[in-house]
Design goal:
With 159 residues, the chain is mostly helical. It has seven helices and four strands. A two-stranded antiparallel sheet has the order 1-2. A two-stranded antiparallel sheet has the order 3-4.
Length: 159
Amino acid sequence: NTQKKSVEKIIKRQVKDFRNEFLCLDSVKGIGPTIAAGIISEIGGISRFDNDAALAKYSGIYWSKYQSGNFTADDTSLQRTGNSYLRYYFVQAAEQLRKYLPEYSDYYTRKFKESRTHQHKRALILTARKAVRLIFALLRDEKLYKPPAVKGDDLLNNK
């Protein structure tokens, strides 16, 4: 436990150049200093991405499209291209978010029940994709996360 605290202290010192980004991600319960630092270091600046879909594609959290004539496949596979380290951090963030935030827990449970095979993996990847949207919005707008008090409230709060 003391070793974990000392590592987190070192991480906080190392990310001082990205203080705003770090604070944005650290404001989300479940995303600690290690995951926040990993995501920030692998993204290398959120301005590189036009939208959350571009960030998801960069991290490899997107699905291939299969189309032939008028046929479009509903069940396609997850692409395993992209930054594997960033994908790892997004999946770890999703795992933690589902433990601490009811919105993500409910989403994970719903996707788990919808899946016929590989239920945990599919639900976790879909939850990670949802986490990408949240993280992109927080970093783009440089806002702290504020959990919704009532369903329908704005998720983001100005600093």
